[in-house]
Amino acid sequence: MDDLFGFSPVPGFNQTDAVFTATEEAQFIARIDAEDLSPFRFQGWTGKRLTRSFGWNYDFDAARLARADPIPDWLLPARDRVAALAGLEAEQFVQALLIRYDAGAGIGWHRDRPVFEHVAGISLGNAATLRLRRRLSVGFERASAHLAPRSIYHLSGTARHDWEHSIAPMEVPRWSITFRSLSDKGRHILQQ
Known about the structure:
With 192 residues, the protein is of the alpha+beta class. The chain contains four helices and 13 strands. The protein has one domain (2-191): Alpha-ketoglutarate-dependent dioxygenase AlkB-like (Jelly Rolls, Sandwich), CATH 2.60.120.590. 19% of the residues lie in helices and 43% in strands. The strands form three sheets. The chain has a seven-stranded antiparallel sheet. A four-stranded antiparallel sheet has the order 7-12-9-10. The model has no long low-confidence stretch (mean pLDDT 89).
């Protein structure tokens, strides 16, 4: 339901601001900080951001999807709200990823793994700029979106599959909650 979102810099990217209250935001941040967060690992490299997955975890060292602890009850109302805005059933979001970006942490250019389909995130704490780029025959087409605290963004279709996204390292901390659905490929892998 893209009409519920207020901004789209590229097809398939949608965003809406101030979906959660400042009180809810503070509660989310406290709950994230209370979790057993670990440095992000990618093929032997350790990143500056701290993460914890629920439902499913993508193990970048083993290049495989693995079951994780169930999505905790405290995340279910947020998942419901995100799913409603994305026009999906809440149960389609089978993975939740908590991230704390301390000062100096960001996330490099990437596309989420093809085992996932819809990607929806809640931005918390401090504003950030989500950078988007799509490779052309020469260079890149670029766009960006301002992620205000308490806002939600949703990547699907072209934005999800044809564009990469990143967040430059910031000087202030930021937290996020990302929900992902499985793609046909992800569901096929799990059935094997």
